[in-house]
Amino acid sequence: MFCYQCEQTAGGSGCTKIGVCGKNEDIQSLQDILFFGLKGIAAYAYHARELGARDEEVDAFMHESLFMTLTNTNFDLNQYLAAVLKCGEMNLKTMEMLDKAHTQRFGNPVPAQVKPAQGPVQEYW
Fold it and tell me: Secondary structure of the chain in the HEC alphabet?
């Protein structure tokens, strides 16, 4: 197993066989999945916030999950599985929030007439 989070190893190179902190490869993998999911939620929640939208449940989930992954104090497999599943729910909620903020700010998208190109069409591949 290779862990990106551990600073306890010699040289700060990360654990390569088993976690010095006590975690196994299942927890390490779930932490990585959760962390990557949090990065995506953070990106879209930021854009929604720029448009004036925010959700307390999403914010609370971000705080709880960051604490859970970055402190390395909880290695309960069932709690990590639940957190990863909830991350999917929060991702959907964040995307709905961003969609609503976009349509409130810019309106609903509508088809537009496009003028045909004049002259030969160039192919780029």
Answer: CCCCCCCCCHHHCCCCCCCCCCCCHHHHHHHHHHHHHHHHHHHHHHHHHHCCCCCHHHHHHHHHHHHHHHCCCCCCHHHHHHHHHHHHHHHHHHHHHHHHHHHHHHCCCCCCCCCCCCCCCCCCC
Chain segment 6-20, per-residue pLDDT in tens: 655 666 666 666 666
Q: Is 25 exposed, middle or buried (0-12, 13-18, 19+ CB in 10 A)?
A: middle
Tokens 């007439």 belong to residue = 113
Q: Letter for the amino acid at 113? A: Q
